[in-house]
Amino acid sequence: MLSERKRTILKALISDYIQRAEPVGSRTLARRYNLGISPATIRNEMADLDDMGYLKQPHTSAGRVPSYKGYRYFVDSLMQAEKLTSEEEQRLSRSLQQRLAKIDTVFYRASKALSEVSHYISLIMGPVLGQQIFQQLRLIPLDSKYVVVLLITDTGLVQDRLMEIPRGISASELDQIARLFTRLLAGVPLEDLSGSLLQELYKVFSRRNRALQEFFEDLISNFASAGGEKVYLGGTTNLLKHPEFSDVEKVRGLLQLLEEREFLCGLLADVTSKDIEIIIGEENKYVEMQECSIVTASYEIGGRKVYTIGVLGPTRMDYARVVSAVEFMQKQLSDTLREILR
Hints:
The protein has 342 residues and is α+β, with helices and mostly antiparallel strands. The protein is 47% helix and 18% strand. The chain has three domains: 4-78, Winged helix-like DNA-binding domain superfamily/Winged helix DNA-binding domain (Arc Repressor Mutant, subunit A); 86-128 and 229-341, GAF domain (Beta-Lactamase); 130-226, Enolase-like, domain 1 (2-Layer Sandwich), CATH 3.30.390. It has twelve helices and ten strands. The radius of gyration is 26 Å and the shape is elongated. The two termini are 50 Å apart. 33% of the residues are buried.
């Protein structure tokens, strides 16, 4: 347990370091925060906090900076909610105001807006279709050349594809394919749509003509790729704007990781709570991320987890603002998805 004085000093020091990214000394705290105690007293308390592991001193003559333990105590016990400005709320809301038919577009716009407001990297895992249950296939001719393929799940989520219609295939044949898919596969989890199930359907059509066979092969390929997770990133270069990552060589490993789909999916797949979760520095299981923190939350539709939303930044992240931004965007996304899927 920390005394009230130590709590006040720790909160002021971390707040100052978050804003300025410079080690903080006792005279600086006394001058900027009107703590009502002398610099000498502040210095003694800071030394105690250092001994207790809440602060660390980069250089002998420098001020102090928060340690991982200090950030964790700040987040858990000292941080106060910081409301977004009306302009920031409007920016997040406007990104999703249009009625959008494509789930992809919803998450792309949300990730872009969240990175702009937070000034860090935003990560949003799109619908985990592999965990959904197939309900219906619809093939809607767009014109004489293209058809829109709609894969609809039990939660109402829609995965769409645009495919070219081979010459010689009629609208009635497309409708026949869609009805057969729906009749034979309704109720099957997407992750269980194995090659053997699809091959049974393939046999029905492969005997008809070459054009229909090729179309069906493409359709099977689309089904095979539908169950994978997709992570939408926004503001990757924002990381380089922070002094901790001004050395490109230092951050190269992290930037390379952010290009790997499996890493991003693994990073977000562990999030199971709709409540805000904050992972700070050394708590990250990936060495390349141990100078970073990530704020996340998940959302469910029909009792099934659909997406995870997060913000990634340095451990010197403005946690209070980021938490507010994630919570606000979480609500905006949930409202938008309900509107689309109802």
